[in-house]
């Protein structure tokens, strides 16, 4: 998760958006059975490091993701 979120967060900085501006994180994964492995343990640990403001979050099982990915993360930021 660190290897995924680090460039993700740095790309936000290039638009003058910080992790404090993020209001929603959505996690999309292929297999709901992986929920506790991916979301509860790996994602929560990384989430707490990068998103100190604790934005809302959700998790969905999907049928497919682009380029064979197992997990996709979407973030919504509110910038004034």
Q: What's the number of helices?
A: 2
Number of spatially distinct domains: 1
Q: Supply the CATH superfamily name.
A: RutC-like
Overall strand count: 3
State the order of secondary-structure elements, H for helix, E for strand.
HEHEE
Taken as a percent bin, the fraction of beta residues is 25-35%
Helical percentage: 25-40%
Could you name the CATH topology?
60s Ribosomal Protein L30, Chain: A
Lateral strand order in the biggest sheet? 2-1-3
The unreliable regions are none
Overall 3D shape: globular
> What does the average pLDDT come to?
80
CATH architecture: 2-Layer Sandwich
State the gist of this model.
With 80 residues, the protein is an alpha+beta fold.
Structure report:
It is globular and about 35 Å long. Helix 2 links the parallel strand 1 and strand 2. Helix content is 35%, strand content 26%. It has helices at residues 2-13, 35-50, and strands spanning 22-29, 56-61, 71-77. The protein has two helices and three strands. A three-stranded mixed beta sheet has the order 2-1-3, with no helix packed on it. The model has no long low-confidence stretch (mean pLDDT 80). By secondary structure, the protein is an alpha+beta fold. The chain starts with a helix and ends with a strand. It has a single domain, classed as RutC-like (60s Ribosomal Protein L30, Chain: A, 2-Layer Sandwich), CATH 3.30.1330.40.
């Amino acid at each position: 998760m660190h290897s995924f979120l680090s460039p993700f967060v740095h790309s936000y900085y290039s638009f003058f958006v910080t992790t404090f501006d993020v209001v929603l994180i959505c996690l999309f994964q292929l297999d709901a059975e992986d929920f506790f492995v991916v979301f509860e343990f790996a994602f929560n640990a990384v989430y707490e490091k990068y998103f100190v403001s604790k934005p809302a979050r959700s998790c969905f099982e999907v049928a497919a993701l682009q380029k064979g990915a197992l997990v996709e993360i979407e973030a919504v930021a509110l910038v004034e």
